Amino acid sequence: MEQTKRLNLGSLAMDYYYPWSNPPDRTKYNQAAKVGIDLDEEISESRTLRRIDAVLYSSSTIPLLLHWSDGTNLKEVDRKVAEGSSTPKDFEGAIVGQELTTKCSVCGTDFLIVRFDTVPVLDSSSSGESQERYRRHKFVENCPSCGSRWLPSVLEVISQVAPPTTRNFA
Ligand SMILES: [Zn+2]
User: Fold this and answer.
1) What ranges do the domains of the chain cover?
2) CA–CA distance from 121 to each of 53, 74, 80, 107 (Å)?
3) Residue 111 CA, ligand 1 centroid: distance in Å
4) What digits encode the pLDDT tens for the residues 6-59?
């Protein structure tokens, strides 16, 4: 089975990974591994996340994630990408993100989250489409542990990071 597909939607190209892909070793970037979470396993089950690499002009790549909050059927997106029939419309509900560990400033709980990123793989920066994308997107508004209000930057909470306890919020 095909492992990845190069797509050109924005200013930079991206390599799209399917849930069945084996992405290259991300140890250098992999926040999830540092806190004992297998993000690829999470993604293989995810209805909201897919892995991508942003392809820089130098041909080096940055591992990132795409996050959808509008209920887009990602299995359909996988199928279309694999067939070569995907269009920008399939990615209208997506935002670029990266995995990150973060601490709630109110209760001090650590989480593995997906935070938005501005690497332009979905839009050309001059078009103004990005802002519309952010306005449409549903962010995580409250800390899952204490309920305090978070700034709109968290796309998804993958998991609480131990200590004190490990819990999934998927
Ligand atoms: Zn909190």
Assistant:
1) 4-160
2) 9, 18, 18, 35
3) 10
4) 999 999 999 999 998 887 766 656 778 888 888 888 888 899 999 999 999 888
